[in-house]
Amino acid sequence: MNKKLSLWDATMLVMGSMIGSGIFIVSSDMMRNLGSGYWLLTVWLLTGIMTVAAAISYGELSSMFPKAGGQYTYITEIFGKMTGFLYGWGLFTVIQTGTIAAVAMAFGKFTAYLIPALNNSDPIFQSGTFRITWVQILAIVVILFLTFINTKGVKNGKILQNLFTTSKIIALLGIIVFGFLLVKDSQWASNMSFGWNSFQDFGKEVGNDLVPTGWKSIGSITLLGGIAAAMVGSVFSSVAWENVTFVSGEIENPRKNVVKSMVLGTTIVMVLYMLVNFVYLNALDRDAIAFADKNRPAVAASEVIFGNLGTVIMAILVMISTFGCINGLVLAGARVFQTMAKDGLFFKSATETNKNGVPEKSLWMQGIWACILALSGQYGDLLDMISFVIVLFYMITVFGVIYLRIKKPNLDRPYKTWLYPVTPLLYLLIGTAFCVLLIWFKPNYTWPGFILILLGVPVYWFINRKKEPNNSQKML
Fold first, then answer.
1. What ranges in 115-213 are assigned the alpha helix state H?
2. Per-residue pLDDT of the chain (476 residues; tens, 9 = 90+)
3. Cα–Cα distances in Å, from 351 out to 149, 215, 363, 469?
4. Where are the beta strands (DSSP E) in 194-255?
5. Per the UniProt record, which residue ranges are transmembrane (predicted)?
6. How far is the C-alpha of 63 from the C-alpha of 70, rounded, in Å?
7. Measured between alpha carbons, how far is 349 from 379 in angstroms, rounded to an integer?
8. Is 457 helix (H, G, I), strand (E, B) or coil?
9. Closest alpha carbon to 154 in 250, 12, 262, 265
10. Residue 416 neighbours by CB distance under 10 Å
């Protein structure tokens, strides 16, 4: 593949893919679970440590396997084609396409702030609970438009990515600065007054209306249960940084620049996320964060900071943020499906590269399925179910660093994980605790997603049913 992406481009892809709509929304649910500004920041800090530790660990694998496909390639090389296929299966069915659909819908919903007619109009079609709205149509148009732009070459995609990522970073920094300069009545002290003992208020009113629903009193793990419940939102807001590994084959000097972009990008984004939550806690009391209209604390905070103009400012910021995020997801995801096709694990036509040097058919397959998910209205439920699986695949990949160190210590490693084995073990420790506690406290967030991935097993067997052991590269 042509090396058209610089370190700057790769870093913008990491940051742009991470910053979507989550940071503007999830803190409401987190506050409802935790009931404390102190614990809200603690959970975001834990998520930041997890994310950066994973990025540092992935760096070793990216330097060893500097080719398109990224995480799919790492898993396949280390644990075999079936495990790699299950990751790719999850990526196509829900993880990548479902995220594209969800972020596109967020774009549509915030556009409706500026164009109320989008929300106020009757559904285009309705049958029972299923309906098609103009917001969904707008989301689909955005997905198809960005898919089309990316079929015209990496250059077009990266220009859009750099422009929108830079814009939203500047806008976020503006919100952060003005969030402290323009707020007259700071809520910081009252929000931080409930610290280590806030979980004791489970079942009680700790604000005017706020009951911290995340704390489950089961022996000594009351505290951990609340953290795990709240981390669903912060973890999901912090994924997709690995998308840069999907386009490793198109990055200049990938053995060095992929890891640099991941570490730089994740670190900067997690610092921005912490600062944005500082703004929420400074501008709003706990009830206002927890019960923000339509779970949008960013809009509520912006109204306090900028007055009536705040809603418009935040709507524009989220539109910029989600548009750039969708572009990054579209650009990167198709490369995985092309690599899978070359391994005989996806539609054969997805291997084709057009005259602009990009996998056009793979891009359209991804885009069309994302549109179907947006049209179905089921993307939100699917993403709730798959959050557990996303972390599980992160853990498998991070474990691969340790596995290769033991099994193949003499392999060339242009970059070695910083503070090995502490860094990967730290991620595995936090990730394991998160997954176990989710299974315990939120089974509806775990088993459905796990079953969805297991459905890929018979699909894999069907694909390979006529293949000889030495003919694993035969295409579909």
1. 117-120, 134-151, 154-181, 188-191
2. 556 789 999 999 999 999 988 899 889 988 888 878 888 999 999 999 999 999 999 999 999 998 878 899 999 999 999 999 999 999 999 889 988 998 999 898 889 888 888 877 778 888 877 888 898 999 999 999 999 999 998 888 899 999 999 999 998 998 999 999 999 899 998 888 755 444 444 434 444 344 454 444 433 445 666 777 788 889 888 989 999 999 888 899 988 999 999 999 999 999 999 999 999 999 998 889 988 888 889 999 999 999 988 888 888 998 999 999 999 999 999 999 999 999 999 999 999 999 988 999 999 999 999 999 888 876 666 666 777 888 999 999 999 999 999 999 999 999 999 999 999 999 999 999 888 888 877 787 788 888 888 999 999 998 887 664 544 443 33
3. 19, 49, 11, 22
4. none
5. 7-26, 38-58, 85-108, 128-151, 163-183, 218-241, 262-284, 304-332, 363-380, 386-406, 418-441, 447-463
6. 11
7. 26
8. helix
9. 250
10. 12
A 10 A CB-CB count for 394 gives 22
Instruction: Return the domain boundaries, the chain.
Output: 7-462
d(CA 300, CA 411): 53
Sequence-ordered list of residues with C-beta below 8 angstroms from that of 231, at least 6 positions apart, any chain: 43, 46, 47, 434
Alpha-carbon gap, residue 295 to 284, rounded angstroms: 13
Give the span between the Cα atoms of 64 and 52, in whole angstroms.
Answer: 19
Please write down the long-range contacts of 381-385, taking CB distance under 8 Å and 24 or more positions apart. Answer: 382/94, 382/98, 382/452, 383/94, 383/98, 383/99, 383/102, 383/236, 384/232, 384/444, 384/445, 385/94, 385/444, 385/445, 385/446, 385/448, 385/449, 385/452
The string over 247-285, giving b where at least 16 C-beta atoms fall within 10 Å of a residue's C-beta and e elsewhere, is: bbbbbeebbbbbbbbbbbbbbbbbebbebbbbbbbbbbb
Give the integer Cα–Cα distance in Å for 251 and 258. Answer: 8
Distance (Å) of CA 250 to CA 10, 224, 319, 412, 429: 10, 42, 28, 21, 33
Contact 16, 264 (CB under 8 A): no
Q: Are 399 and 428 in contact (CB under 8 A)?
A: yes
Q: Tell me the C-alpha distance between 414 and 219, whole Å.
A: 47
Q: Is the peptide bond before 469 cis (omega within 30 degrees of 0)?
A: no
Instruction: Give the dihedral of Cα atoms 188, 190, 196, 200; nearest 10 deg.
Output: -150
